[in-house]
Amino acid sequence: SGPTTRALRGRAITFRADPFLDDPAHALVHEDDALILVEGGRISQFGPFEALRHTIPEGTPITRYADSILSAGFVDTHVHYPQLPMIAAYGEQLLEWLERYTFPTEAKFADPSHARAVARRFLRELLRAGTTTAAVYCTVHPQSVEAFFDESARLNTRMVAGKVLMDRNAPDNLRDTAQGGYDESLALIDRWHGRGRQLYAVTPRFAATSTEEQLDLAGSLLRQRDGLFMQTHLAENTAEIEWIRQLFPNRRSYLDVYAHAGLVGPRSVLGHAVHVAEDDFCTCHHTGSALAHCPTSNLFLGSGSFRLFDAVDARRPVRVGLGTDIGAGTSLSQLGSLNEAYKVAQATGRRLHPAQAFWLATAGGARSLYLDDRIGTLAVGMEADLCVLDPKATPLLAQRTETCETIEDLLFVLMMLGDDRAVRATYVAGELVHDRDDPKARG
Ligand code: GUN
Ligand code: ZN
């Protein structure tokens, strides 16, 4: 069947500005009774229902979401799909955690049928959590990328993903070579980058597992085709940082290792960035690269506190998105990430306003990925990736949101108490792909 024309009616939120740079109350757009008209997979009308009802083509079904909040779908800027089976692995910090749990788990993705099964389960979970776009690490195996894009293309989700590059300091069965990794990546790029809604990210895991030759070739890959992404890890853990210092004694900083290889620029997404200096924030600002704030992961692995408000400082704002970082993260829900992001801000003496929080999870994430002209807000012409949030999803939410008097208050309670149960429905390019109360409805 072709793309459906449909009308959604309900309370809606979106953004007209960046709430870290503008007054959050002004940046947040709130429509009490909105129409979202979807035609050809895009939003063709958005605004007050009564003013726009005449634009609804005759015979178009109208889905009414009473007591719910319509929003752009969530954007997850850093997540590892192959690590879903090892979420909640006990007891280690980053480097030991990688050795003990992560590498053995990722080795299983040599098997394409395993990769396909996990990719399918992962995407299903993302949609259940209201997340419609993610920047995703696969494993070193090209078949893990193939499986992921195949499943994403089937759902028509806009995904950014790539093959992990890793040619040293990893087990035999998880290493590629500098040239082999380059060739495999280029073949995947030509197969998937820009095919439908799929986008490719050159993905050196982190500086410790790539030789300088591999990092340089990753930089060269980025120059081979237009619009490619780059994703890697940066300054997550103090033992990791010390290791990088020893491996790259001639570089000024961890970030400089990547910059030297030509990996830092627009559409580069650096995960974690917990322990970075002012100089690094300046480099990110000037190069247009983004940082992925992964609060549940940073708390789970004891990595440290991301300095969100320093990163977005108006004098040299850095693009920041929100990452669940599964399997080091502990929730696939961006509401869960916001819950912890609020507490991390508190621990650093700062207050994350609910408008800022929901911006990070939607429009800010889209801007970090340079996709804000297509996703992340509700506006005419945007791709119709949506989620529907239910403030009464649980008895506690129902009781607590009863007394919320403002939209800000309601959003705050949702982000503190909500999770996948609070996602009533998810739409991808205008098609219903998740309906909490009708599990058979699938895209
Ligand atoms: N650093 C290098 N690889 C990883 C990974 O898989 N997860 C996290 N959290 N950090 C990393
Ligand atoms: Zn990660």
Automatic annotation (TrEMBL):
Gene designation: guaD
Record text on cofactor binding: Binds 1 zinc ion per subunit.
Reaction(s) this enzyme catalyzes, per UniProt: guanine + H2O + H(+) = xanthine + NH4(+)
Needed cofactors: Zn(2+)
Family: Belongs to the metallo-dependent hydrolases superfamily. ATZ/TRZ family.
Top-level lineage group: Bacteria
Protein name: Guanine deaminase
Function according to Swiss-Prot or TrEMBL: Catalyzes the hydrolytic deamination of guanine, producing xanthine and ammonia.
GO terms under cellular component: cytosol
